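Risk register update: the risk of archive-format incompatibility is retired. Evidence:
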Amino acid sequence: MTERRTASISSRKQPQQARSTELVSAILDAAVQVLTSEGAQRFTTARVAEKAGVSVGSLYQYFPNKAAILFRLQSDEWRQTSGLLRDILADAARPPLE
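Archived output:
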């Protein structure tokens, strides 16, 4: 019996330089555009790379598959929402609604 491969949802590596940070940002922006315009069914790494204007190889340096891109988008959204809620709750000038 062969062992089943599991998809990795973590990034391959973290960008170290400004140029690579911009590349990852372009990939994530392109991913949102592909999801918005074509939907989840047609979401592929090739479409994301094309929309970002990078090679698929460059995309794969940072994301092993489309699941990793989607996980990163969701994680970023959770982080942003958590920060927003934390700021709202910490604002003493705005009492909670009754």
